[in-house]
Specification:
Strands 6-7-8-3-9-10 form a 6-stranded mixed β-sheet, with helices on both faces. It has a 4-stranded antiparallel β-sheet with strand order 2-1-4-5, with helices on one face. Helix 4 packs across helix 5 (132-144). A hairpin with a 2-residue loop joins strand 9 (197-202) and strand 10. It is elongated. It is α/β, with parallel strands linked by helices. It has helices at residues 41-48, 70-76, 92-103, 107-116, 132-144, 162-175, 188-194, 212-218, 233-236, 264-273, 288-296, and strands at 3-12, 15-25, 29-34, 56-61, 64-65, 77-80, 150-154, 180-185, 197-202, 205-211, 221-227, 242-249, 252-257, 278-285. The chain has 2 domains: 3-216, Rossmann fold, CATH 3.40.50; 219-296, Alpha-Beta Plaits (2-Layer Sandwich). The structure holds adenosine-5'-triphosphate. Adenosine-5'-triphosphate (ATP) is lined by residues 12, 15, 17, 35, 37-43, 82, 186. Adenosine-5'-triphosphate is lined by residues 12, 15, 17, 35, 37-43, 82, 186.
């Protein structure tokens, strides 16, 4: 197990930022830690990277306890903090060499991470001259320097343009094939694009911990179809994965399916096989975003 969290609570003064959090992350696995602003994501990540102590509970990273084996935890973890602290006056290589020196890392590895994070075309520049996206890449390169088994990334794609977003997401996906990636975000699409599993946190408590595949399968979907004449509800109930049928108006039907798979083609084939003409066919999809809203709204 790469990350193992048991009953972690964290108080800031008398405000409880985390309340009895427990979860596990395997290797390799990419897990999205999703929650609205102020949910406790950064706090959890700071505890996992030994920057903060919890008030209650225990956490292990790569088998090392974050309280009693801080150094081994830091050696196992690559951390990209939300507010990536960079020395703006340093050149990219100089900055990475500075950090590499602390960890006794070879020059060859610096070149490797520059290449891996797509920094090569900008590598002659000072960090202060880089765009937000490239600064983010420097943070990621820095997190990867010591080739850690576990990557903890706090909102890694915030502020990136759509092209950079795709690049960084692809990079994270590649890394996640062999390592553990635990990344926080409040963007549902981000989780859909990169992660295999999502842990949703709200007000310091975990409200969902699921494989994305299972989460999608749980969803219901409504297809609105209009035929050219009346069809018996019982007839439409023969469609696969159908949950219910409502005749909402004249020849208009709302068919609820127990799946998020797009069922319109089934409805289309069904109409064709039964010599029905379709006048309209629309999908009302209860997507992951609405689930997130459902779980995290007041
Ligand atoms: N140093 C601090 N002192 C006091 N309260 C804090 C401190 N850091 C965080 N908090 C509070 O703890 C709660 C959780 O904050 P945290 O930064 O962990 O949330 P988050 O999910 O990372 O939010 P965001 O998505 O906005 O970054 C918030 O209510 C926040 O105001």
């Amino acid at each position: 197990m790469s990350i193992e969290v048991k009953g972690i609570s964290k108080l800031y003064g008398n405000q409880k930022a985390l309340n009895q959090i427990s979860f596990k992350v395997e290797k390799p696995e990419i897990v999205g830690f999703l929650g609205p602003n102020g949910a406790g994501k950064s706090t959890m990540m700071k505890i996992l990277t030994t920057y903060l102590n919890a008030n209650e509970g225990s956490a292990k990273v790569n088998g090392y306890d974050v309280d009693t084996n801080k150094q081994q935890v830091q050696q196992s973890v690559g951390y990209l903090p939300e507010h990536n602290p960079l020395y703006l006056d340093m050149y990219i290589k100089e900055y990475l060499a500075f950090n590499a020196h602390i960890y006794n890392i070879s020059k060859k590895r610096i070149d490797e991470v520059i290449e891996l994070t797509g920094l090569t075309p900008e590598s002659h520049k000072k960090i202060g001259q880089l765009s937000k996206g490239y600064r983010q890449r420097v943070g990621l390169a820095n997190a990867l320097l010591h080739d850690p088994d576990v990557l903890i990334l706090d909102e890694p794609t915030t502020g990136l343009d759509p092209n950079q977003l795709v690049d960084i997401r692809n990079l994270i996906k590649t890394i996640g094939k062999t390592k553990t990636v635990f990344l926080s975000t409040h963007i549902m699409q981000e989780v859909e694009a990169i992660c295999e599993r999502v842990i949703i946190i709200n007000k310091g408590e975990i409200v969902a911990d699921k494989k994305l595949k299972d989460l999608r399968d749980e969803k219901e979907q409504v297809v609105i179809v209009e035929f050219d004449y009346r069809v018996e509800d019982a007839f439409l109930l023969k469609l696969p994965k159908v949950k219910s049928v409502t005749n909402t108006y004249d020849f208009v039907y709302e068919i609820t399916f127990k799946t998020s798979e797009d069922m319109r083609s089934y409805v289309f084939d069904f109409a064709h096989d039964n010599q029905l003409k379709i006048l309209q066919l629309n999908q009302k999809n209860a997507n992951l975003e609405s689930l997130f809203r459902e779980l995290t709204s007041d």
